Amino acid sequence: MTSKRKYVTIGLTLLTLILFIFTMFPFFIVVINSAKSSFEIITDPISFPERWGQILDNMSEIWNSESVRYSSSVVSSVVITTLSLATISIFSAMAAWVLVRTKSKLSTFIFLFFLSGLIIPFQVVMFPLVSLFRNINEIFDIKMLRTYHGMILAYIGFGAPLAVFMFHGFIKSIPKELEEAATIDGCSKPQIFFLIIMPILKPIFVTIIILNAIWIWNDFLLPQLILGVGNDIQTIPLAIANFAGSFVKKWDLIMTAVLMAAIPIIIGFLLLQKHIIKGMVAGSIK
Amino acid sequence: MKQQKNNRLWFWLFLAPAFLSFIIVVIIPFFMGIYYSLTDWTAVAGIKPNFVGFENYKEMFSDMAFRYSFIRTFLFTFLSVLSINFMALLFAFLVTKDIKGKNFFRAGFFIPNLIGGLVLGYIWQFIFKSVVPQLGGLLGIPALEELLLLADPTLALIGLIVAFTWQYAGYIMMIYVAALLNVPQELLEAAEIDGANVWQKFRSITFPMIAQAFTITSFLTLVNSFKQYDIIIALTKGGPSTMFNDEIVNSTEMLAVHIYNVAFKYNDMAQGQARAIIFFLILSVISVGQVYFNKKREVEM
Question: Are B279 and A121 within 8 A, CB to CB?
């Protein structure tokens, strides 16, 4: 390596390091301020805390607070996210499989119909959706708003188009012979799907679950409309929004709540880094 | 015959869960929405909406708050697209160079993308309100010390763009990284031997290779800036207010926030819905344009 090259490399490394520090700065601010008292955070938001142990006091205050109800929102978020992920991925894979394997005008039409969902933004359907859910309650006496099943149904509806599209592309590349052989051996349709097709689809399942997990875990507007305010069922973003809006800016506790919301995501990312990056890039290009 | 009937049954059984959910959640509300936008809908149970034709649309375009929100959304989108793509490209060039720990840096730049817009908005609100003035005091820069970024109509928009860029640039970087890794190294080395300088190499080799990625990234940043809601709610709530054509308007109330506010804060559901339809039409034009350009480019390549 020539010495000129070496200097260029050192310069680029330094620039990267500076940008990296800037990128990490907000996280640093969150961490140091989660360990401050309400007085300390006002007088000095940029120094290290006087006592790191304060972070545990703040966390337990958030966790046990009657008004924030953080612990119950963690449960709700986990329930909503896992059930939505399971249903979106399995139902979409089932639909995509029959759409690929049935050659007819109808199945092409239904596939295009699903694709139309990709360009419909949430904002254009949100008010009528709430109204429709209210009507379902009045006519069929099934409560949809402020319930888990209403929330999950909404996620299936909004998540299905992209998932069906991605599964569809993948299933097309699976040779049909495998299924024909299984049919001759006497396998039923569900057996073929769950025992033969699903295992082959594993990589695309991972991609779809990652894409949807990040969306659903962080989602705010949809749960705000479907679950509402002051409901027993509330997701973590709803809990944080209610509390950050209602408190007269108790920044020490807001920062702690933010930290508690970010920790599971960052741990998840560190564990599944390769899958997440690959999955999210694949999701964008498709 | 029986086999065929059986197959048709399985077709519908396998299709039904995803298809029905999609119809109930997206398709039916979509058509309801088009209808409601032509009525005086109030969303109050038991009151039947009356058909009013294009009244809502006429009213919308004479509303200064809407016009202003429209302009601001385009400005925000334009600046966000520039800012995010600039940072993303810079990140991508750096982490594909021969530097130590590039995977570590890649992960670091990417991480903010996993933080939800709402949570992220509160982090930046704190930074702009408390940390920046404090830093200004520490460094002895009075301009920073007295900077109330979120209280100024122009600067609040910059604040939003900073927060959004922080969230999104790492993600867009990953798409550029994928494209840059496809640039054949031999080609660059050959060009170097032939005496090409950095700019020439970039223009003739690297740039065409990342052009395909650019159609994707520009589309993604365009659409996601245009739809921004969470960060705005947490960071500025649409404020601060300012004057526009002698009327008081909210300086960072972008369309997504504006639609929500018209419907719920000002309690005008039909108006909110009509504005949502316009919002949808603009996004459709962007999407169709993207598909068109993509196809055209594919043909050229």
Answer: yes
- Enumerate the residues of chain A whose CB falls inside 8 A of the CB of residue B36: 127-128, 131
Cβ contacts of A251 on chain B, cutoff 8 Å: 126, 130
**pTM reported for the whole predicted model:** 0.90
Could you give the domains of chain A?
54-285 (1.10.3720.10)
With a cut of 50, say whether residue B301 has pLDDT above it: no
Over residues A190-224, the pLDDT tens digits come to 899 999 899 999 989 998 998 899 899 999 999 99
Window 3-22 of A, Cβ < 8 Å to B: 9, 12-13, 15-16, 19-20
Chain A residues touching B278 at Cβ < 8 A: none
Which of the two residues, A231 and A2, has the higher pLDDT score?
Answer: A231
Q: Which long-range contacts (CB under 8 A, 24 or more apart) does B283-291 make?
A: B283/A119, B283/A121, B283/B223, B283/B226, B283/B227, B284/A119, B286/B219, B286/B222, B286/B223, B286/B226, B287/A119, B287/B219, B287/B223, B290/B215, B290/B219
Q: In Å, how far are A50, B94, B262 from B61, measured between CA atoms?
A: 56, 46, 14
The two three-digit tokens of residue B257, written as one number: 């926030």
CA distances A264 to A70, A218, A259, A270, B238, Å, are: 14, 12, 9, 10, 30
> Would you tell me how many other CB atoms lie within 10 Å of the CB of residue A256?
27
Domain boundaries, chain B: 1-31, 59-300
Task: Specify the CATH number for B59-300; select among 1.10.3720.10, 3.30.565.10, 3.90.380.10, 1.10.10.60.
Answer: 1.10.3720.10
> Is B1 a residue whose pLDDT tops 60?
no
Partner-chain residue, chosen from B18, B124, B269, that has the shortest CB–CB distance to A94: B18
Nearest to A24 among B36, B108, B233 (CB): B108
Single out the residue of A51, A17, A16 nearest to residue A36, CA to CA: A51
State mean pLDDT over A16-24.
94
| Distance between CA atoms of residues B85 and B80, nearest Å | 8
Give tens-digit pLDDT for A58-112.
898 888 888 888 889 999 999 999 999 999 999 999 999 999 998 899 999 999 9
> Mean of the per-residue pLDDT values for chain B?
88
Q: What is the pLDDT of residues B221-248, one digit of tens each?
A: 999 999 999 999 999 988 788 888 888 8
Residue A29 exposure: Cα atoms within 13 Å on the Cβ side? 25
Of B24, B126, B280, Cβ closest to residue A251: B126
| Residue A30 sits at the chain B interface (C-beta within 8 Å) | yes
CB-based contacts of B69, cutoff 8 Å, min separation 6: B249, B250, B253, B254, B255, B258
The CA-atom distances, in angstroms, between B107 and each of A211, A258, A278, B102 are 17, 20, 12, 9
Residues from chain A contacting residue B287 (CB–CB below 8 Å): 119
Contact A161 B22 (CB under 8 A): yes
Tell me if A128 and B280 make a contact (CB, 8 A cut-off): no
pLDDT one-digit tens code per residue, A165-178: 999 999 998 888 88
CB contact under 8 A, A284 and B216: yes
Span B257-296, pLDDT tens digits: 999 999 988 888 999 999 999 999 999 998 888 778 776 7
